[in-house]
Amino acid sequence: MTIRVQDATSPMWLGTGLLRVVTYPFAIASVAVNYDSYARPWLGVTVLVFMGLWTLVTLAYSFRPAWRRGWLVIADLLVTSGLMLTTLAIFDPDIPKHVPSVITTVWGSVPAVAMGVYGGWLIGASSGLLLAVCTGLARWTIDMSLYTDAVLLIGSGLVIGMASTAARRSMATMQRALRAEAATAERERLASSIHDSVLQVLAHVRRRGGELGGEAAELGRLAGEQEVALRSLVASGPVSSTSESGEVDLLGLVRPLGTSRISISAPAGPIPLPHDTASELTAAVREALVNAERHAGASARVWVLIEDLGTEVVVSVRDDGVGIPQGRLEAAAEEGRLGVASSITAKIRALGGTASLETAPEEGTEWELHVPRARPKPNTGLARLVKRRQHG
């Protein structure tokens, strides 16, 4: 399934270009009506011709996505503002009443719309305010008509900016939904293929191994565990972003770790975490499960409990195995063999959390991992000091 990503604001850009074309005849009509009152008619005609040429330039970025660059949209705003101010030179500045309107007329309002489409409501409203100021300077008067123009200019940039922001967010949501749909379709296709081949082979090995006994029974048991793990992986939903900030569901990463010996309990709803935090926490859980698999005993069972406490996520990994004899961890540390325990602790501390281990001979082992949702910021001052010493 191919997903085509397009600009959600393309219709707005097309509308901006058409608005420029539609409003240009108003400027032509204004020059024709006010031509006799111009102090410099030739300048008025020159500005009108330049407006036509600039309209063609702006159509390029309105209709061609590759041309929608910030510098070109800003240039449009500045050029239009400059053309507005030529009104002072076109009309007789000594007779303010001879300035009925700026030379650009409603054509000059389009940059506020374009800036709103490009940068959102704040940039759009700010651009409208700049154009309103230029309108007041060009007319060299303050009246109710100027206030009306200012409200329309600022309002158009504000409303279009809000609409463009909403369109981009809607497009991002739709793209995430399409990616999830594509991942689900691919998972279903693979599940069908695996069910017809790999899972059936594993199930046959499990049954046949149990019948033969001995070493074959052990192979059958291992095949059965892999069958359960594979079924869990196929049945679990795709791991995808759950928010605009790129968070992922922790459960989608941890649930595939379950087997016939490993039971996973978690809330019904998703547990969204930043991608890095979820990945590191899952790696720590995997390390604890590997440790239980190696040292808890062949018949030991493991339970994983995930709790969402709002400000933090707590994961408990407990087994009913043989436990760790007193002094073994300290002896391993003295010998320089920090092993899995150190790896788990380091991962959780890097996330700003805590990891505690409780164990005793014949009483099993339990890890309790506390991870805050907000990852702590690094100590930049300490980092700079270390860097200076390394280079010093």
Protein described:
The protein has 392 residues and is α+β, with helices and mostly antiparallel strands. It has 2 domains: 10-172; 243-392, Heat Shock Protein 90. It contains 14 helices and 7 strands. The protein has helices at residues 10-34, 41-63, 70-85, 87-90, 110-119, 121-139, 144-196, 198-212, 215-235, 250-254, 275-295, 328-334, 339-350, 380-391, and strands spanning 247-249, 262-265, 272-274, 302-308, 312-319, 354-359, 365-372. The strands form 2 sheets. A 5-stranded mixed sheet has the order 2-4-5-7-6, covered by helices on one side. A two-stranded antiparallel sheet has the order 1-3. Helix 1 (10-34) packs antiparallel against helix 2 (41-63). The longest helix has 53 residues, at 144-196. It is elongated, with a radius of gyration of 34 Å. The protein starts with 9 loop residues before the first helix and ends with a helix. The relative contact order is 0.06.
Biggest β-sheet strands, sense, barrel: 5 strands, mixed
Structural class: alpha+beta
- Please report the distance between the alpha carbons of the first and last residues: 55 Å
> Per the principal axes of the C-alpha atoms, what is the gross shape?
elongated
- Read across the widest sheet, the strand sequence of neighbours is 2-4-5-7-6
Strand content: 5-15%
Q: What is the chains' assembly state?
A: single chain
Q: Whole-number average pLDDT?
A: 80
Regions with little confidence, pLDDT below 50 for 5+ residues: 1-5, 380-392
Quickly count the helices.
14
How many domains, in number, for the residues? 2
Q: What series of H and E elements makes up the topology?
A: HHHHHHHHHEHEEHEEHHEEH
Give me the count of strands.
7
Helix content: 55-70%
> What is the CA-based Rg, rounded?
34 Å
